[in-house]
Amino acid sequence: MKGEDLMYDVAIIGGGPAGLSAGIYAARANLKTVIIERGLHGGQMQNTLDIENYPGFDTIEGPSLSELMYNQALKVGVEWKYGDVSGVDLEGQPKTLQLGDGILEARSVIIASGAKPRPLGVPGEAEFTGRGLSYCATCDGALFKGADVIVVGGGDSAIKEALLLTRYAQSVTVVHRRDALRAAGILRDRAFANPKIKFVWDSVVERVEGNARVSGVVIRNVKDDSTQMLAASGVFIYVGVDPVTSFLQGSPILDEKGYILAGSDMATTIPGVFAAGDVRATSLRQIVTAASDGAAAGLHAYEYLETL
Question: Would you call 139 a catalytic residue per the annotation?
């Protein structure tokens, strides 16, 4: 893989909305651009059924928006490579990325590797993942037709997926550690108005129960410390996300939570290295902001390369 013919101007790690946007802007600037993605193009958009807040679309399915962005990137000349980046050397020139089948070299790197669902870290969680426990209602909701299911969390993702699950499940119980939802007002209103959704407040999951498959969860009230068993055939967890930055372990561009520190120009403290999207230390993580980050990263990568 190593060699002048495979020396890229820009290597983008991650093919979600940030990476795809970065690729479109970099390729339109006539830069030799490659996106390296270990999963499906579109990233977490692939796991979102209905997107209602992306400008230009009243509602669009996540896989459809993923396909549109992906095809646009290919049309303007972005190369696509499936692979998992296991290590990097980002100092100096060229930058090198370690993939399973060798080394890829580039004069600049945009890290748009995104984030992944955060586990609860409770007994039974790992054992029952894929056996009634899931982090993606869009992926697995149809498997729970007529069932009683539990959603853990109170943010936008949790409530969006709770609403989706009502299309299949008999009942959806939302377990939230606080006494009010953090989700956007329109989502809260829909959830409170849905007769299939009920709420258990001020509670956390202590363990997941079951035999061959999930049978329920034990929850603890954080105010009075009482516990109870909630029976369910499915458990869906939405308690946050963690950045995908294990390949950067020990890097000075990471904050204490593992997110990448980058300025408004998406530049890190390492010359020629940029970050975009959910992997970046930022207060807002939405598809539209990820795409904006990617555009800025692609343009500033071009400006950096012009200085070499």
Answer: yes
